[in-house]
Amino acid sequence: MTKKKVIKKKATKKKVAKKASHKISKGMVFEYAPAPESTKVEILPKYGNFIGGKFVAPKSGKYMESRNPATGELITKIALSNASDIDSAVKAARKAYTETWSKLSGMDRGKYLFRIARIIQERSRELAILETMDGGKPIKESRDVDLPLVAQHFFYNAGWADKLDYVMPGKKVKSIGVCGQIIPWNFPLMMAAWKIAPALACGNTIVLKPAEQTSLTALRLAEICKEAGLPDGVVNIVTGAGETGAALVEHKGVNKIAFTGSTDIGKHIARTAGKTDKKLTMELGGKSANIIFADAAIDQAVDGVVNGIYFNQGHVCCAGSRLLVEESVKDIVLKKLQKRMKQIRVGNPLDKNTDLGAINSKEQFDKIKSLVKQGKTEGGEFWQAPCSLPTKGYFFAPCYFVDQSGSASISREEVFGPVLSITTFRTPEEAVIKANDTAYGLAAGVWSEKGSKIHKVAAGLRAGVIWANTYNKFDATSPFGGFKESGYGREGGRHGLLPYLEVR
Ligand code: NAP
Ligand code: MG
Predict the structure, then answer these.
(1) How far is the CA of 183 from the centre of ligand 1 (A)?
(2) Are both 267 and 157 inside the same structural domain?
(3) How much is the average pLDDT of 214-221?
(4) Are 463 and 493 in a shared domain?
(5) Which of 141, 283, 326, 414 is the catalytic position?
(6) Which element (helix H / strand E) includes 441?
(7) What is the mean pLDDT of the chain?
(8) Is residue 454 part of a domain?
(9) Ligand 2 is a single-atom ion; what residues have CB below 5 A from it?
(10) pLDDT tens by residue, 261-278
């Protein structure tokens, strides 16, 4: 190669490096071309309730709109049901319980569950797209996290159906009857699967009330139950608002209420159900802490924190919404966190590149905005990732507050959005005290290279789920649930069967 050519090559290299560093300084390493999901899902103009194996119109004739939070477009209309619809569903569930489901062997119940699990796998693309359209979460999450877990919960519980004698060795167990199940909007199909699969495996029948913002995948699950040949009335799905859920809680024919949702509504339900002999389980809110020690693998920890709070727009009950970082590594953690946050792609949830989708509803969007506004008046430092947001729909850029006082609303209240609260600590003891200084007790994450430190800290934490050097990892075989105001009862694993069984 001639001297001239070598000089020219060096110059080009320099130019390329300059261009790349310009891009990095803007916050994005690569610009991706849009990759929107192209599969079309068939959606009817309106949906009734699924009662006794059929889709039926609500008694009032009233319907609610179901809109796409990323675009504001109307997707379809769903039934606004009242106490009379709930009554029909409970009667259908009772009939199915006494005449068929409770008489089937565990092995036969298991066959239905396996069939449902397989159909979920076959239709998972369609279910993931619908979940994303209805709820705003990125398609890569609904496709790669929610749907595999939904199928896993059915497969896992199907396996238990003929082995219930081993749930509590030495004891006899029996189904409890008709279960009322009420679920929230953050993991619509996953919450339905967490509730329906163990209840059916244990021989109970069901009336499920999905959240009004996200009922569409539960209604599709009703179609799947039909396709699997599940006897009529074993699973009933009734859509509606808060009053519809309240009617289910108050119904005398219901033996158990399983609720997942906010702590406020949970307390209200507990008061009502407490006056009856209904069994009750509660999966409520959280304000979970990620604890980073100075000896942790910092890049890995920062990635885990990002996953912990910005995953699913922070619409996660166990979101790591508080970060406790050892004082000596605060600056490096913040620097790396900012760099990582600048790379988060916010936008069209149906685009396969999107990391952070739409906030689920206008109400939730307004709540996040108002808590952040209030947070800015409560001291500390605020930082928000500089990213361009779509002009339509409800989008909120990921952000954090540092060094607010422990009494600030952002550090105490469940924001349920992409908002992180950061403070420091000096000793493991202080970290444990600060992590436990909350009304909630759902989850926590500990980041350290020292196994002994992880075990010691974990033993002091009052949280139902504790992750070590990872965060937001779920598995159907593992129990999930909280302490304190995060609720009681467990879902998943062997523990998740107990609330659906009478132990003798
Ligand atoms: P929410 O407002 O409490 O609603 C949950 C469900 O309860 C919805 O189906 C709702 O219906 C229904 N409901 C409302 N009022 C009722 C009443 N008086 N009686 C009976 N049912 C009633 O909660 P969300 O805003 O949907 O969900 C977010 C909350 O769920 C967060 O606090 C989150 O932490 C929690 N969560 C907890 C877990 C866990 O496992 N611990 C998991 C996921 C979510 P409408 O939708 O029609 O209002
Ligand atoms: Mg919707």
Answers:
(1) 6
(2) yes
(3) 98
(4) no
(5) 283
(6) strand 440-441
(7) 94
(8) yes
(9) 66, 134, 213
(10) 999 999 999 999 999 999
Q: Report pLDDT digits (tens) over 129-165.
A: 999 999 999 999 999 999 999 999 999 999 999 999 9
Judge contact between 28 and 43, C-beta under 8 A.
no
Instruction: Give the ligand whose atoms come closest to the C-alpha of residue 263.
Output: 1
Q: What is the pLDDT of residue 29?
A: 57
148 and 211 housed in the same domain: yes
Alpha carbon nearest to ligand 1 atom 32, residue: 262
CATH number for position 325 = 3.40.309.10
In this structure, the answer to whether residues 226 and 264 fall within a common structural domain is yes
C-alpha pair distances (Å), 397 with each of 72, 77, 149, 236: 18, 30, 27, 38
The boundaries of the domain holding residue 198 are 46-284+486-503
Quote the ligand 2 centre to 395 CA distance (angstroms): 15
pLDDT band per the 50, 70, 90 thresholds, residue 30: low
Residue 328 counted as domain residue: yes
pTM score, whole prediction: 0.93
- For residue 19, what pLDDT is reported? 42
Question: For residues 58-88, b (16+ Cβ closer than 10 Å) or e, as one string?
Answer: bbeeebbebbbbbbeeebbbbbbbbeebbbb
Look up 283 and say whether it is catalytic. yes
pLDDT bucket at 50, cuts 50 / 70 / 90: very high
CA 383 to chain centre: 25
| Rounded Cα–Cα distance for residues 240 and 207 (Å) | 13
Distance, CA of 139 to CA of 128 (rounded, Å): 7
pLDDT at position 33 is 85
**Chain segment 4-23, per-residue pLDDT in tens:** 444 444 444 444 444 433 34
Residue nearest to ligand 1 atom 16, measured at CA: 242
User: Total domain count for the chain?
Assistant: 2
Ligand 1: distance of its center to the CA of 490 in Å? 17
Same-domain status, 100 and 197: yes
Is 318 tagged catalytic? no
192 and 156 belong to one structural domain = yes
Is residue 190 in some structural domain? yes
Q: Which ligand has its closest atom nearest to the C-alpha of 414?
A: 1
Ligand 2 centroid – CA 78 distance (Å)? 10
Q: Can you tell me the distance from the alpha carbon of 410 to that of 417, in angstroms, rounded to the nearest whole number? A: 11
Ligand number, closest to the Cα atom of 194 = 1
Choosing from 179, 317, 318, 399, the catalytic residue is: 317
For the stretch 73-84, pLDDT in tens is 999 999 999 999
